Amino acid sequence: MDVNDEFELMDMDDDDFEFTFSEIIEMENLFKEMGDKFISKSFCQDLATKFSRSVHRSGKSSVKWEQVESWFEDKQSTLAAKAIPSLVPEETLISPRAPPVKRRESTISISEAAVVLPNLMFEASVRNQILD
């Protein structure tokens, strides 16, 4: 097995990797305690070492510090994405619906429409010729 084969196996192991329930609970609690504080490499290394030595991880792959770091980064990104919409006041959001169409309050008779319509059609055709 050469170095490339080992690297591919390592990638496959990372794809199948999952934290245990107890690890997730501990990271959730740590995340709440830390708030917006920076997560250092040594913090992630210590936590990965602790998780890898845990009884709950026996028979499973060991935890890498990068996996711990990635979990915290994903958690921060998710939290930030949820917080952004709440920063915008609701009244400034654009409604996806079109504004209501105003209806004319007055109506015209059919005979009046017959007189006005040809003039409107003429104006429209003149405008089209000018724009072309």
Describe this structure in words.
This protein is mainly α. Helix 3 packs across helix 4. Residues 1-13 have low confidence and may be disordered. The chain has helices spanning 3-16, 21-34, 41-52, 65-87, 110-131. The chain contains 5 helices and no strands. It has a domain at 3-88: Orthogonal Bundle (Arc Repressor Mutant, subunit A), CATH 1.10.10.60.
Q: From the 3D structure, determine the CATH topology of the domain at 3-88.
A: Arc Repressor Mutant, subunit A
| Parts with pLDDT < 50 across at least 5 consecutive residues | 1-13
User: What is the rounded Rg?
Assistant: 32 Å
> Approximately what portion of the residues adopt beta-strand conformation?
under 5%
Gross geometry: rod-shaped
Q: Tell me the name of the CATH homologous superfamily of the domain at 3-88.
A: Homeodomain-like
**Given the structure, what is the number of helices?**
5
Largest sheet: none
| The CATH architecture of the domain at 3-88 | Orthogonal Bundle
Tell me the structural class.
mainly alpha
Helix content: 55-70%
What's the helix-strand series?
HHHHH
Number of E-type strands: 0
Overall pLDDT score: 74
CATH class of the domain at 3-88: Mainly Alpha
Q: Report the end-to-end length measured between terminal Cα atoms.
A: 71 Å
